[in-house]
Write a structure and sequence with these properties.
Length: 151
């Protein structure tokens, strides 16, 4: 589950998310380019579909920075977003942050379901590396990923 949500789910975590991050010096903004997800778990097992959306937090200062969310894509396990999530933050402040990107199934009549997450430690992030990359979705509470930029 995302670190700051009380929603629980018994959905098996699978699939991946493609995104890139970049710092735009002129705007003093962190940009998270959310491209797409693939092979997500089905929240509606009978119909084999989900209504996924992506949300992000900068941790540990969740309350200060707030969350950002994409639009909900309906009835798909392979949503395409092509959206940018933005945080106004000085670049030096990012050294103490972890980027949490999570995927959720939207349920208009009930509780949203967790579909997986990625945690990136920004302390050692190479800001010259802003290419799109596929990240496997992980269950709640997995260790922070360190992306190897050499591939």
């Amino acid at each position: 589950m995302s670190v700051y949500s009380m929603a629980f789910s018994n959905i098996d975590i699978r699939g991946a998310i493609e995104f890139a991050i970049d710092y735009v010096e002129q705007l003093k903004e962190l940009h998270i380019f959310i491209y797409q997800c693939k092979d997500l778990a089905a929240a509606d097992v009978k119909k084999q579909r989900s209504d996924p959306y992506v949300k992000s937090y900068l941790l540990p200062e969740k309350a200060k920075m707030g969350k950002r969310k994409t639009a909900v894509k309906q009835k798909t396990l392979n949503p395409i977003y092509n959206e940018i999530l933005r945080y106004k933050i000085p670049q030096e402040s990012l050294r103490s942050q972890t980027l949490n990107v999570s995927v959720w199934h939207y349920d208009a009549l009930g509780q949203n379901s967790f579909l997986g997450e990625v945690n990136l430690n920004l302390a050692m992030w190479d800001w010259k590396f802003s290419k799109r990359h596929w990240y496997p979705l992980e269950p709640r509470g997995r260790p922070i990923q360190m992306l190897q930029t050499g591939f």
